[in-house]
Design brief:
3 domains, signal, 5 strands
Length: about 525
């Protein structure tokens, strides 16, 4: 027997509790009949796929365009993308461009001329509680006067007002029929409902009108999204920037729709100023995710994409806290979906690389390791810059490993500058009672070998430290901290082999000056093998 069968009373509302609730509501001055009124049926939850939520299949809602793979963008290209955005473009809602068409542009123009004349009359009609509510919301739309609505809707206005009055009827069936009729009238009657909600003194009427407005807004929003997905409607906020960074396809458009649902501020900021984008980024990174976990920030791939697009602004310089929050986001599951997805890999890699090159050297090893693991080519450029900018051993060795990961053989001579850097990394491994560690010079020798096509064992190290995913696993290069004669001889042999590789590399003629039928240089000559401990 289940718990529900053992305790049937738990499945129903207690009559005593109902009586107490009705008594409390009566004392508060709220009619019981208006409270227990059945709520209108709620719309089905929106599907995660915008095309499904609009009642269309993805093939019908999305244009038949192939997935575009975006080539890496140079810094000046990012400047051009954001420079072409219009900072003066203000968005209150994605549906605003079509609202004026559905409501009547001519009536709006004439109503604006008479707004000043009706202002005093309008103030007298507003209920006291509505006045306070309006004044507390500075972003609420301006209510149209009745004269404006009469010019716009004609005789239909009285019919709609009658239905609004019926929402406060004592007859439940009358209230339900009025709600259904208003819902069927569609989005054009929104100005009438907004005025009714603000002016009515009946809590039941205001409650039902608020629900109707929310449902009409949701329906209209879905229709706008469907038109955008099909490529026949108005552009979404930020689309002028997004399509240059992500491409234009049905899949990309569906991602942009999800961005607007989840992080509208980030998407709108793409067409604003750098300060707009900075505020939107800080807000997104300091907002609990949908599951209210301890980790802040976006929780989906579209939201993370919008975050990276806003951060791609060349004039945006992230603070250290922003860098660490972004790294935390990229390490989570949505970061893997963005950088490993077939459709999102190309633009996701570009956006990650654009932010990567802005990071400071505070967390450079973590950034380089994660970018190497995710195969972001910009990590190679950052590694080259790291060798010039920092003197921290951990950052230097991770930069060298990254150079091997991306086959940056053009940096061999640069790495040779660290062959005499004998600082320890502080790994402090213990094996067979001996304390082991790695020197910067050890990693430099392994890096030279890797860049020239040799493994670490080829030049004399005891273990193979070449690891394709991150370049080098320098934890495998450990040698005794207290050097005995055998360890000293091992390092001398490794250094001699590395010097020979560098000499061959320097003596190698420039391939651009060689005839096409010239034999390639022989790089397979054997090297001295040191006796391994």
């Amino acid at each position: 027997m289940t718990k529900r069968e053992m305790h049937p009373r738990r499945t129903a509302t207690s009559p005593i509790m109902t009586a107490f609730a009705l008594a409390a509501l009566t004392m508060a001055g709220i009619p019981g009949s208006s409270v227990v009124a059945q709520q209108p049926p709620t719309p089905p939850p929106a599907s995660s796929n915008p095309a499904e939520s609009s009642g269309q299949t993805e093939a019908e809602a999305s244009p038949q365009k192939p997935i575009a793979h975006i080539a890496p963008l140079s810094p000046d290209r990012y400047e051009q993308v954001f420079a072409e955005a219009d900072p003066e473009r203000q968005w209150r809602s994605v549906t605003e461009p079509l609202r004026s068409q559905s409501a009547g542009d001519d009536a709006d123009t004439e109503g604006a001329q008479t707004a000043g004349e009706d202002a005093s009359t309008e103030t007298q009609d507003v209920a006291p509680e509505a006045t306070g509510r309006e004044s507390s919301d500075a972003t609420s739309p301006r209510l149209k006067s009745r004269q404006e609505l009469a010019e716009q809707f004609g005789p239909t206005l009285e019919t709609i007002e009658t239905l609004v009055d019926q929402l406060g009827s004592s007859d439940f069936a009358v209230r339900e029929r009025a709600s259904a009729s208003l819902l069927e009238s569609g989005y054009p009657i929104v100005p009438i409902l907004q005025r009714g909600e603000a002016l009515s003194g009946d809590p039941e009427v205001r409650l039902r009108l608020g629900r109707l407005l929310a449902r009409l807004e949701d329906q209209y929003q879905r229709s706008i999204e469907s038109a955008f997905l099909a490529g026949t409607g108005n552009d979404m906020p930020g689309w002028s920037v997004a399509k240059k960074l992500m491409g234009d396809s049905g899949w990309v458009r569906s991602e942009v729709v999800m961005m607007y649902r989840e992080v509208p501020d980030l998407l709108q900021s793409l067409e604003g100023t750098t300060d707009n984008r900075r505020r939107a980024i800080q807000k997104a990174l300091n907002t609990p995710n949908a599951n209210f976990r301890s980790v802040m920030g976006p929780d989906t791939r579209p939201a993370l994409t919008a975050l990276l697009m806003a951060a791609a602004d060349p004039n945006f310089a992230p603070e250290l806290a922003t860098e660490r929050a972004m790294l935390n986001q990229l390490r989570r599951s949505q970061g893997g979906l963005l950088l490993n997805g077939n459709a999102s890999r190309s633009y996701g890699t570009n956006l990650f690389g654009a932010f990567l090159l802005k990071t400071s050297d505070s967390d450079r090893p973590e950034w380089l390791f994660h970018a190497s693991d995710r195969n972001v080519p910009a990590a190679g450029d950052l590694a080259v810059r790291t060798l010039d900018e920092t003197d921290q051993p951990q950052s230097l060795v991770q930069a060298m490993a990254t150079l091997v990961r991306f086959d940056r053989a053009d940096q061999v001579l640069k790495v040779t500058e660290f062959l005499d850097d004998h600082r320890m990394l502080g790994l402090n491994q213990i094996r067979d009672g001996s304390l082991l560690d790695v020197r910067v010079s050890d990693v430099a020798m392994a890096t030279v070998a890797g860049l020239l096509g040799r493994s670490t064992m080829d030049i004399g190290f005891p273990e193979d430290a070449n690891y394709r995913q991150v370049g080098l696993d320098y934890n495998r290069l450990v040698l005794p901290v207290i050097e005995d004669e055998k360890t000293k001889q091992l390092r001398r042999n490794i250094r001699r082999n590395v010097d020979e590789l560098v000499r061959r590399h320097r003596d190698q003629p420039d391939q651009t000056d060689q005839p096409k039928d010239a034999d390639p240089p022989d790089s397979s000559a054997p090297l001295d093998q040191a006796e391994r401990p």
